[in-house]
Amino acid sequence: MKIIPVTCAILIHQNKFLAAKRSSNMSLAGFWEFPGGKVEEGESPETCLIREIKEELGIVIRIIEPMTPSVYSYSEDKNIQLFPFLCSWESGEINLAEHEKIVWITTNEINDLTWAPADIPIAKELSENWQVFRSKA
């Protein structure tokens, strides 16, 4: 079974966090996720996340700390290991290159979105520990 390492940013800004809706040309179209992407050969998860956010959103982020990784099996031969990082927005203007739309939400709104399955445990951890994470961002 292949395990694909993927990173994602839990981007906190002005007491809200960013969620991105997958576009129609992406797998799992219409689901919400924390933006990020696949770790390339020889790349660290942190380097990957900074690169992916620059490519997908056009902004520069700062990684604050890692969160609990999530493993999700999308099929018998494909597992995603999702490495989430608490992040802050450092510079740049958001410009969507892949996603259909983004929203800045509070944890009170977290259950209003249909999350991609691999992102659900991360959304739960964020919701349960919001005060701690928010204070670090």
From TrEMBL:
* Species in which this protein is naturally found: Algoriphagus pacificus
Cofactor(s) the protein needs? Mg(2+)
Stated EC number for the protein is 3.6.1.55
Keywords from UniProt, A to Z, are: DNA damage, DNA repair, DNA replication, Hydrolase, Magnesium, Metal-binding, Mutator protein
Say which domain of life the source belongs to.
Answer: Bacteria
One Pfam annotation reads NUDIX
Name used for this protein in its record: 8-oxo-dGTP diphosphatase
Instruction: Tell me which residues make up the Nudix hydrolase domain.
Output: 1-128
On whether DNA repair is a keyword of this UniProt record, the answer is yes
**Per the record's keyword annotation, is Secreted included, yes or no?**
no
Say which enzyme class the record assigns. hydrolase
Q: Which CDD domains match?
A: NUDIX_MutT_NudA_like
Q: Which reaction does it catalyse?
A: 8-oxo-dGTP + H2O = 8-oxo-dGMP + diphosphate + H(+); 8-oxo-GTP + H2O = 8-oxo-GMP + diphosphate + H(+)
Q: Which InterPro entries match?
A: MutT-like, Nudix_hydrolase, NUDIX_hydrolase-like_dom_sf, NUDIX_hydrolase_CS, NUDIX_hydrolase_dom
Family note: Belongs to the Nudix hydrolase family.
